[in-house]
Amino acid sequence: MQLKVLSVNISKEKGTVKTPVQEITLNHRGVMDDAHAGPWHRQVSMLGKESIDRFSHQAGRPMKHGEFAENLTTEGIELVKTSPLDRFSGEHIELEVTQIGKSCHGSACAIYREVGNCVMPKEGIFARVIRQGSVKSGDVLKYKPRIFRFHVVTLSDRASQGAYSDRSGPRIIEILNGHFADTPRKIEITHDIIPDDASSLSVLLEKTTYDDMDVIITTGGTGIGPRDITVETVKPMLDKEIPGIMELIRVKYGQEKPNALLSRGVAGLIGGSLIYTLPGSVKAVNEYMNEILKTLEHLIYMRHGLDVH
Asked: Exposed (0-12), middle (13-18) or buried (19+): which is 208, by Cβ within 10 Å?
């Protein structure tokens, strides 16, 4: 999908509309000579003609480019339907979406005072500069949706030998597909079945994290049996542990089912990949995924330096 730049706009002061100019330069701080440039995540603001036209009809008058303080006025894609970490790339520049919408300034906004509403807080988006360069009216940007990549790993001697049908790994995949089905976010999932062997697991994790997988979810090997080696293998590899998720799950479900307290599962970050170690039963997978999914996307954004609420 492509996006056409209709206008490029800047302002010297915050809280004012932006003025169309012939060309803007994007650097590590955002739009050069623009009041909103800086070392933060909202370096470049974007608003689509699709949103402006709807608001113009509501306001009863045409809106000028830059009137909503957007740096880039565009046409071709409903920007509000994009997601953080999606990218727009052109011949000279690349932008990464960091935020959808923003807080409305209310009566401090000239458009709000005139109409009683404003489109930018609802349908404008913000981005940071990935590749520096110039942008002008008429430029075409290619839209690249960010795909979340998951790797599901089943640890089971019997399943790896074909003597037992793996059910927990496919259940994780089913839950992930269901969770993202009604969202604009696309996902890719790979699945491996390996024996309960520390060497096999560590090699697989090293390869997976080297490939910059977003999320790794293991199932099996979190108990205290002689072949339960998942936690002992994963924990020393963690760069950062996220203990609260697993503690909550153990306490929440352990109150009614004490056996849930016996899982030693951990969560954390290995390189740039989030990892969760789940028990091997389908029932436990359902419980763990129910809690993990509540914060999963937020953690992915945090890993990329975004504090998205």
From this structure: buried
